[in-house]
Amino acid sequence: MAPTKEEELKLRDYSGDISKLGSAERFLKSVLDVPFAFKRVDAMLYRANFDTEVNYLRKSFETLEDACEELKNSRLFLKLLEAVLRTGNRMNVGTNRGDARAFKLDTLLKLLDIKGTDGKTTVLHFVVQEIMKSETAIPDKSPDNLLNKVHPRVKDDDVQKKQGLQVVAGLGRELANVKKAAGMDSDVFLGEAQEEIIRIKGDEKKALYHVKEVTEYFHGDTAKEEAHPFRIFMVVRDFLTVLDQVCKEVGRMREKTIVGSARSFRIPSSASLPVLNRFNIRRDVSSDEDSLSP
């Protein structure tokens, strides 16, 4: 409600009948006669909200640290990165990008750009199905399971595929703090810590150190080129949204195949480059960000 400088000058210079002003203007004109009125209000609000602000910042720092730990220690996320790297190398066999050892996480957001001949299946669909095959559990083989008696192979494969898909689809829940960290406003966040909450500067420094460390862990020397300090969390958050959608699509594909043929869809392990051989792969992309980095 504080007036702008222009409004303040107009109110101070007004010498007409006060009763002709609106109630808000009359109130503000009276407040302007109080020395440092709005600075005093700011100070009162600061004192009233101090504990709340401190708790908020401490929780924010904890979220950042937890997000860093989740990214570095998530078995499934690292497994997914390995699958993407392996798939990219197989796609680029015979090129100067065919023996890559790493890639920037931004590449994850481009996995939907390369599609198969059907125009729907993408590299990410393939990667999800590959991980599904390895993320399996022991199926129900109890004597009472009638379906298992009649079609044991169908039952086993169906259960394993379903459970594997559930594991992959659960990555978003596993990286919950990463998604929270992606929504933080670093400018406001750091400003409050530097100007107002001096007592928790140590926590701030520690949290930001972990953010820098995890960014360098995944992006190496290129971490210093990041435009936003929390960009790595934003990239993973956006990828998790895409991954969740692909998992739903793979689940629907699997259900349709089961209903139509009484067996779950799987890629033959003996096939050379399954699915990917049918991809229209563009090899003319030279941007480092669009391809795997050797």
UniProtKB/TrEMBL annotation:
PANTHER family xrefs: FORMIN-LIKE PROTEIN 6, FORMIN-RELATED
Alphabetized InterPro entries for the sequence: FH2_Formin, FH2_Formin_sf, Formin-like_plant
Native source organism of the sequence: Thalictrum thalictroides
An example molecular function term from Gene Ontology annotations: actin filament binding
GO biological process terms, semicolon-separated: actin nucleation
Entries under Pfam families matching the protein: FH2 (PF02181)
Domain called FH2: residue spans: 1-269
Designated name of the protein: Formin-like protein
